[in-house]
Design brief:
It is an enzyme of class 1 (oxidoreductase). The protein is of the alpha+beta class. 36% of the residues lie in helices and 20% in strands. The strands form five sheets. A five-stranded antiparallel beta sheet has the order 5-6-10-8-9. A four-stranded mixed beta sheet has the order 1-2-4-3, with helices on one face. It has a four-stranded antiparallel beta sheet with strand order 13-14-12-15, sandwiched between helices. The termini are close together.
Length: 467
């Protein structure tokens, strides 16, 4: 780690104005409070200067100058992260990529979409779906930028069938910390050409290079999609049914788990809930296909399975678009609803083997009871990614800090014991770094630091994150 970072002075600001234009530089009192934190706000630190990136050549020149002067640079997109990954903990330059928000090319022959990193996730859907095409990754925050999705290897609800963001990136154009403009990958489907440098960038959380262009894989959009809401007497039966659903018949697009408690948060915050909201535990399933009759047969068979063999109490086919939108919107709003129920929250984005989820949830409830801390949860149970939230609920800041440390220590220790990992989709950033280090050990960290050293010898790019 470099201990001799330069502090920004007026001469540096003048140089950045020459590079990016005065209208694209924010300094001192002009720096908005939003640049000091991400969506969750667990870490707060202001940059010394903000540069609005308008094109890749501006990014290249900023990085060349920062490398020459040994100035730390933190890259930020829409700021929807939850682990402090875009927080400029050492000040320096914050590179705001949101102005780079153009869709550059929709290639219907090669089935790719080339975009700048500031393009929002929902804008990708709006671009390709009217053309009968499909970008499958479905993270919950549709206002997130694609650069951030790639940097954290975002997952979402459809990962069980379609994989995470990593599987949907064909190529990346990046600027290295030294200011080199490089392209990793291409539009081709196969690639056995050397080391997978593209895949090193995906999930590296802005610590290795700055993404300036992304070429995404597309497929034909499935013509039909329907959902099935399955109600259970208790959480154990719902959790037990999930892996059986995946193994016994057609693969679902999504398998989401939640309990009645989560619906209560949604109703209190949004003023809306789902039909049939009086059961204790639920699986929300989604299926897609190009043949509606075949899809209906699949749903009928799954309905029969869950009721006769998996112990479900009821199964409700959600067919009408309005009802399907409502139920998925309620599910997608759980985080916002839980945040609104407390003055502050922190999250454990753990991922486990499906066979150990029930035991882990039992441990969560035990921790909640023993520590007297409210800990709501829900999850993408089909891929084992669980979202666990510790709620501050008006305790003092000092007590909250102690509770978070003890709670996370106990939750992550159990997750590691059960074969789990620190993060399924939100990344490591600043907040989860110590838990990743504990899990992976010195040898893996040494390898990661070696990669960082090759890409970024001066450690100027997003320092103090991950490694």
């Amino acid at each position: 780690m470099n201990s001799s970072y330069k502090k920004i002075n007026q001469q540096d600001v003048d140089q950045l104005i020459q590079i990016a234009g005065k209208e694209n530089i924010k300094f001192k009192d002009d720096i908005h409070e939003k640049y000091s934190h991400d969506e969750l706000g667990t870490a707060i630190s202001y940059p010394e200067v903000v540069v609005l990136a308008t094109d890749k050549f501006v990014v290249q020149k900023v990085m060349q100058y920062a490398y020459e002067e040994t100035i730390p640079v933190t890259v930020r997109g829409a700021g929807t992260g939850l682990v402090g990954g875009a927080v400029p903990v050492l000040g320096g330059i914050l590179l705001d990529m949101t102005p780079m928000n153009k869709i550059l090319e929709l290639d219907k022959t090669n089935l790719t979409l080339t975009v700048q990193p500031g393009v929002k996730l929902y804008e990708i859907y709006e671009c390709v779906e009217p053309e009968g095409l499909f970008y499958a990754p479905d993270p919950g925050q549709k206002l997130a930028s694609i650069g951030g999705n790639i940097s954290t290897n975002a997952g979402g609800m459809r990962a069980i069938k379609y994989g995470t963001t990593r599987e949907w990136v064909r190529a990346l154009e990046v600027v290295t910390p030294k200011g080199e403009l490089l392209t990793f990958g291409s539009k081709v489907v196969k690639n056995s050409t050397g080391y997978g440098l593209k895949d090193l960038i995906i999930g590296s959380e802005g610590t290795l290079a700055v993404i300036v262009t992304a070429t995404l894989k597309l497929i034909p959009k499935p013509r039909f999609s329907k959902s099935l809401l399955v109600a259970f007497e208790n959480r154990e039966k719902a959790i037990e049914a999930s892996p059986r659903l995946i193994k016994d018949y057609v693969l679902p697009t999504a398998v989401e788990f939640f309990e009645k408690q989560a619906l209560g948060y949604s109703e209190a915050f949004f003023g809306k809930t789902i039909e049939n909201d009086h059961f204790n535990a639920y699986l929300l399933l989604s299926y897609d296909a190009n043949d509606e009759e075949a899809l209906n047969r699949d749903l009928a068979y799954v309905e029969k399975l869950v009721l006769k063999e998996y112990g479900a109490l009821e199964a409700f086919v959600v067919d009408a678009q309005s009802k399907r939108s409502n139920i998925w919107n309620v599910r997608g709003g759980f985080l916002e609803a839980i945040k609104a129920s407390s003055d502050f929250i922190d999250e454990c984005d753990v991922v486990l083997p499906r066979s150990n989820i029930s035991e882990f949830f039992a441990h969560v409830r035990k921790v909640s009871e023993e520590m007297n801390v409210r800990i709501p949860y829900f999850g993408h149970i089909g891929d084992g990614n669980l979202h666990i939230y510790l709620c501050k609920d008006n305790v003092s800041d000092e007590e909250w800090k102690e509770r978070v440390k003890e709670g996370f220590d106990r939750l992550y220790s159990k997750a590691f014991e059960l074969g789990g990992l620190v993060s399924g989709e939100h990344g490591i950033g600043l907040a989860k770094k110590s838990y990743m280090h504990k899990l992976l050990g010195d040898e893996q960290l040494m390898l990661m630091r070696g990669i960082k050293q090759v890409f970024d010898p001066k450690y100027i790019l997003n320092p103090k994150k991950i490694v």
